[in-house]
Amino acid sequence: ADLPRKIKFGTYLLYDLSFRERCRADIGEYGQLLLNSVSKRLQKNVSATKIELVLVGKKEVANPAIVKFPGSYRGVSVFETLLRLNSYVQNDTTGNFNDADIVLFISGQHLESTPYYSMYYSGWGRDGRICTNEKGIVLNSYNPDFSKISSLVFAVLRLLGRDQPGGIAAHLAKKPKSCLKKKPKGLYNNVTKLPGEGLEGNAYCRIFADNRNDFSLCQKLQGGCLLSCCWSNYLSESRDTSAPDGFPCGNNNKQICFEGQCVSSIPRAQRRY
Questions:
Q1: How many domains does the chain have?
Q2: 154 with 225, same domain?
Q3: How does DSSP assign the chain, residue by residue?
Q4: Residues 148, 33 share a domain
Q5: Domain assignment of residue 78, yes or no
Q6: In a domain, 195, yes or no
Q7: Domain shared by 145 and 214, yes or no
Q8: Exposed site from 124, 152, 184, 211, fewest CB < 10 Å?
């Protein structure tokens, strides 16, 4: 079966107290900007189909839903927290998640991968969980600069069926048409840009430094998509960060950064899973 030209998947945002205290922007707007960046990266993986993640709800969850490591580990246990969040979502009787295909949890705390697993694991659910009665759970840490979303993209690709025979397109084509043609109602339909669009360098560095006014942009590297943010203009006190998707770069800032590279346009379906 042919896939529709556009598929929208509802995404529900859960977050903890630490995220609410650290995020200076509107929480829902931050969530939709993050989803916009993930959606653009997904376009490279499904030929001729535009996939959009739409924020359909948001809620703060109590800290007991977050599992902290004991002893010397100070961060949030990724694996154990995913287990608990999965139980929380699948057993929900409020109807909060009815319009959600994916549940995104953002923590303002540092995430620790489980010591028993060598790779950082950021998603919970079987391959191809999208369009089933179960919800896919993905986990991310708060990054005011939007620079660390690759693990989130990887987790969503897996939920979309990347590792199924024939890849994402073949897997989605087998799903009921009602799932692929539904139109989830977004909370932030007016938030359509990428996180870096319209950002000026000094303003970005202040965001990167958790809104500290004594940080500014001191130099651009790698075509303008690797930024050095300096404290009080001291090069010796610089911190490097990848520019967020959509950040202007290149000659006269007429190009944009995407996945850390300065490009004229966002590539589509470069590789097929």
A1: 2
A2: no
A3: -PPPSEEEEEEEEEE-HHHHHH--S-HHHHHHHHHHHHHHHHTTTSTT-EEEEEEEEEEE--GGGSPBPPTT--SEEHHHHHHHHHHHHHT--SSTTTT-SEEEEEESSPEE--TT-SS---EES-TT-TTSSSPEEEEEE--TT----HHHHHHHHHHTTTTSTTHHHHHHHTS-HHHHH-----S-TT--S-TTTT--HHHHHHHHTTS-TTEEEEEEEGGGTEEEEEETTEEEEEEEEEPPTT-EESGGG-EEEETTEEESS----SS--
A4: yes
A5: yes
A6: no
A7: no
A8: 211
Residues 161 and 101: beta-carbon distance below 8 Å: no
Q: Pairing mode, if any, of strands 123-124 and 136-141?
A: antiparallel
Domain that holds residue 259: 201-263
The model's confidence at residue 141, banded by pLDDT at 50, 70 and 90, is confident
Distance CA 196, CA 201 (A): 10
Q: Please, are residues 35 and 53 in contact by the beta-carbon 8 Å criterion?
A: yes
Quote the mean pLDDT of the chain.
79
Q: Which CATH number does the domain housing residue 100 bear?
A: 3.40.390.10
Q: What is the pLDDT of residues 202-225, one digit of tens each?
A: 888 888 887 788 888 888 877 788
| Interval 53-112: pLDDT, tens | 999 999 998 754 555 555 544 566 777 777 788 888 888 888 888 888 899 988 887 776
Say yes or no: 158 and 225 in one domain.
no
If asked whether residues 82 and 167 sit together in one domain, one would say yes
Banded pLDDT at 247 (limits 50, 70, 90) = very high
